[in-house]
Amino acid sequence: MKLNEDAALTVAGLLLQIKAIKLNVASPFTWASGIKSPIYCDNRITLSYPKIRNFIRQEFVSIILERYEKPDLIAGVATGGIAQGALVAQELGLPFAYVRSEKKSHGMTNQIEGIVDSGQSVVVIEDLISTGGSSLNAVRALRESGANVKGMLAIFTYGLDISVKNFAAEKCELITLTDYSTLLRKAIEENYVSEKDMQSLMQWRLDPQGWEASLKK
Q1: Which of 34, 109, 114, 124 qualifies as a FRET site for 63, CA 20 to 30 Å off?
Q2: Closest residue by Cα to residue 84 from 155, 156, 183, 177
């Protein structure tokens, strides 16, 4: 779910401009999960551009105040959501914590770093949503600590069906600044991709496994 179409197009254009998102149908990328994809996203690159990171921060802040009023805490998902979340928390004057993918095997064995009190309202910040697995793992950890998770905000989502189902199953609202369909619209407007490549990119979004299988034919 995205709330502002104009802002979504702006964010998509910025991500393409600084190559935080790369599109390559001819030479697909391999994700950590092993999935072959014509798109690769690394939103940490936005942190190297002050004007862009400030724009993203302010979009997050506006959505939080509009949708959730002012929560008690901002939490970031390690690792991509840590810096983004800290920027948002600083702007709102709120406490910040972050959530690891799993508990540490040493020391205090924390999964959550920072102070989270039972009953606190929390908005979670993430940089990217693929399947939603690791992001929702953070939501579960916060809920287990007694926090009231109001929702999650992310810069970008691939919009894969599995992620939609996962967020629905966890009953966690997800709002993103931009998404895959908006990105493709911007990419074709700005001539980042051809019409032929656009068809392939749309096919991948609808059926990633089928798209990968077609590469082997």
Answers
A1: 114
A2: 155
